[in-house]
Specification:
five-stranded parallel β-sheet; four-stranded mixed β-sheet; 27% helix
Length: 559
């Protein structure tokens, strides 16, 4: 059944305030996008392209989320031809920027070798500096005339006004109110969906919940499939071998559950650092004021146990910069210290973010300076520092903490491991996924021998690109009928670990905006839109929603 939607009728349910000052604090639009992530920017741009009036609410310092926040090494598989639509346009605009001689300020273009090699016929570029991504997102918003509310966060106490199953308005911490007919939650946290009363999950499901194999507690796969494990034999105790001396910092004292058991734990977060070895652009690593070398005792013991390299992935970006990612059993990830983040208030999140920065600042200083770090490691660290021309307002340190996973909506459909490996095919596809099912570690625990081990890391390749269904980005109709969620979408932990890549979020953002605009045009709910018309528009906008299968492949069942 279609539900008649009139913006004026909807907004009349909440009369505007009487005073002129309060009146100015109310913004009325057709589609409100909450979250200035890459997905949010692309969603806002697509909505404007479809003729809709749009407000983009950005709670953060800069536009683009992690894409402009340090993650310059794009997470794309060898099947990166799945990146389509406006997402493809973004990466082509990156390539266009670096074709200019003026873009190369710290090195010659011919001297740079990208870590993701661009094929001769490829028009996109997958490695870039943070400020270049931000510049492109800012240009998109400016050129499309998107109304942008900067540094505005949802009021977590009284942030959502509903009439039945519809969001009518959201209230921001500043007191400003945004009234709209349709909303898109493009944030990493999923605050809007949660405050709108939409069900969600945090943590890992048990394997038994959806018949999966790599969900829940995962000690064994971490041993079998990745190098993100600590060297064996590292004592978990302050005095090696002495249980009475207590555990080292960061080790979870709770006993290890049975493999595949569901829990509340969230895979590790980190800042993606943009470093440089260009002397005139380098900010030295600093020793935090509250530095405590006990936080790095596991690191020192790892070196003593044979660790013989800098524990990071150092991916080269243009202009002698890097994107630094976690690598090894102890690295950039502050393992186990983020479990409270998804459901926390802003003050708690700020504290967790500060603790992550303190850890990573201390780690970088330790690797470069501490006498218990091998001299060869300190020498290899010597040329590096933060890039002075990135994140200038923050001393070269990124503002965005990489939230690899937070809330996940309980939607009309659920993406699972079975979709990722091709046993089940999602109906009404709105984008494709292709990346490894990639979960970072969730905690450190003590094994039966009194040694510290990591748990939760899983890296399982998938056979081929798979569709992501429209029902996975829409809530259940009885919970909310005018909200679409392209980032904290409906997926198990296992499936989300593959979907959670920035290009996929961009594609889902475009599809979400397309659906919201069509729901407006059809005067119906997001669940009841004409799926055939959605498909036609996605294809017209060069979105890719199917992957050719070999003719002898068995057909998976649709669901």
């Amino acid at each position: 059944m279609r539900i008649a939607v009139s913006l004026l009728a909807l907004l009349s349910l909440f009369p505007p305030p009487a005073s002129a000052a309060a009146e100015a604090a109310v913004v009325t639009t057709e589609i409100c996008v909450y979250g200035g992530t890459a997905a949010g920017v692309i969603a806002a741009v697509q909505a404007v392209r479809m003729g809709r009036k749009v407000v983009l609410v950005n709670p953060d310092v800069r536009l683009g989320g992690m894409t402009s926040g340090g993650l310059g090494q794009t997470d794309v598989s060898k099947k990166r031809s799945i990146v389509a639509g406006l997402a493809r346009q973004f990466y082509e605009d990156i390539a266009a920027w670096y074709r200019q001689d003026s873009a190369w300020t710290q090195q010659r273009r011919g001297d740079y070798v990208p870590t993701i090699i661009v094929e001769p016929n490829e028009t996109a570029w997958w490695n870039f500096e943070p400020h270049v991504a931000e510049m492109i997102f800012e240009r998109y918003v400016r050129e499309k005339g998107v109304t942008l509310l900067r540094r505005e966060r949802l009021d977590l106490s009284h942030g959502v006004e509903k009439a039945g199953a519809r969001i009518v308005a959201i209230r921001l911490e500043s007191g400003r109110v945004v009234r709209a007919a349709f909303f898109i939650d493009a944030s990493y946290e999923g605050d809007l969906l949660a405050k709108a009363g939409v069900g969600y999950r945090v943590g890992r499901e048990a394997n038994t919940g959806f018949g999966e194999t790599i969900n829940g507690v995962q000690p064994s796969p971490a041993e079998r499939t990745s190098n993100h494990q600590l060297p064996p034999g590292i004592s978990a105790y302050v005095r090696p071998g002495d249980r009475a001396s207590g555990l080292l910092p960061g080790i979870d004292p709770s006993p290890l559950e049975k493999e595949g058991t569901g829990d509340h734990r969230v895979q590790a977060y980190a800042f993606r650092l943009c470093l440089t070895d260009a002397p005139g652009n380098r900010v030295p690593f600093r020793r935090p004021a509250d530095y405590d070398e006990r936080d790095f005792e596991i690191l020192f013991r790892a070196f003593a146990a044979g660790l013989d390299r800098i524990p990071w992935i150092n991916s080269a970006m243009p202009n002698r910069k890097t994107d630094i990612n976690n690598s090894g059993g102890i690295s950039m990830n502050f393992i186990g210290q983020n479990h409270a983040y998804p459901d926390a208030d802003y003050a708690t999140r700020d504290r967790i973010r500060t603790e992550h920065r303190r850890y990573q600042e201390g780690l970088m200083w330790t690797l470069a300076n501490h006498p218990r770090v091998p001299e060869s490691i300190r020498a290899a660290m010597a040329p590096w520092g933060l890039a002075a021309d990135e994140f200038k307002e923050n001393g070269g340190w990124p503002e965005a903490l990489y939230l690899r996973e937070a809330r996940r909506m309980r939607g009309a459909g659920v993406m699972t491991e079975h979709h990722c490996v091709g046993r089940v095919v999602a109906c009404d596809a709105v984008a494709l996924g292709a990346y490894t099912m990639d979960s970072h570690n969730t905690r450190r625990y003590v094994d039966a021998s009194g040694h510290v081990r990591n748990e939760g890391n899983v890296q399982i390749r998938i056979p081929e690109p798979y569709p992501i269904g429209y029902d996975a980005i829409t809530p259940r109709a009885d919970e909310c009928e005018n909200l679409i969620v392209p980032v904290c979408l409906s997926a198990t932990h296992t499936a989300y670990c593959s979907i959670r890549m920035e290009p996929v979020f961009m594609m889902l953002g475009q599809s979400a905006a397309t659906a919201a605009a069509q729901a407006w045009e059809q005067k119906t709910s997001v669940q009841q839109i004409d799926r055939a018309k959605l498909r036609d528009r996605l294809l017209a906008d060069r979105q890719l929603i199917a992957w050719p299968r070999a003719t002898n492949d068995p057909a998976p069942k649709a669901k």
